User: What shape does this take?
Amino acid sequence: AHSFNAIVCIDACFTQKHNKRSHKDPPRQHPRTVFLLESDVKRWEEIVASLRPPKTVPKIAAAAGGEACEDGYELSMKVPNSVLDACEASFTAADGSREKASTQFFDSTALMAMLCCHDRVLWLVNMTSPGEHQHYALALIDQLFKNLPSGFTVGLLYDISCSIYRSCVKWGFLDAYLSRLTFAISVFHAYGHGWACQCVYHPRKCDGFGLSDGEGCERFWHSISKLIAYLRICGHHTRLYTLDSQVQYADWLSLLGIGNWLARKWHNTQTKRLEADTQVISSAKQDCYLCKQWKSQLSSQTRPLPSKLS
Assistant: This one.
């Protein structure tokens, strides 16, 4: 089975905002800050704007309006366009509710984090635009690969992996790293995607992700939820310094409990392995037969929609 040198997850938290103020507090930076430089984030925003044309009405909407829409696969994608369009439309609809008020009252609209498989924060991005724009995630991924040896392979869990991978393939984002990067959808977000999308991007159906759930970010957001009220009204630089300090404290706690964490993960892995082996044995089928059946199911359930007959 395929495996990765590293597994990471990305997610955004829109409860971590900062109120607009007439002026910023005096600059201060944590000596071990995990925040990406604003210039790096801005650079990726400009790259995306220069390579990708303005968005138009999704094909799924055009099809709903009665126009003929020929389904198919785009470039090297394994999921048909109709499913990807539906996933993107669903995410855009959920994200659109944040658009109106975000920048009117807040100068920082959210945080986006990248965590390793041990639930330790690698980097944070301070988001300043309404909505979960792709350049934030691209900046985090770029930062990750800049700090890894050449040849390192990475499994990435993200709630809209299908959409960002499609953009990377279509517009050439992360071309230098894409061959070493495998996308999957975080477990609890996967059920908001179409079944064909789940067949390809669900981590339990992708080789190499094991029992990684991609929800480390959600656990981190919960751990700092008590700071929401304070971080909304404190100074801009004080907010970032406080978050950096909280990350350092979380890392210290994680290190103290790493033995228990490993024991718990090992026990869970062995339990799941025993259950799976028992089910395979009870099926009285060879592994090669089951793998062949899964490939046939995958091929059948990720087919493009049949074209409309005139």
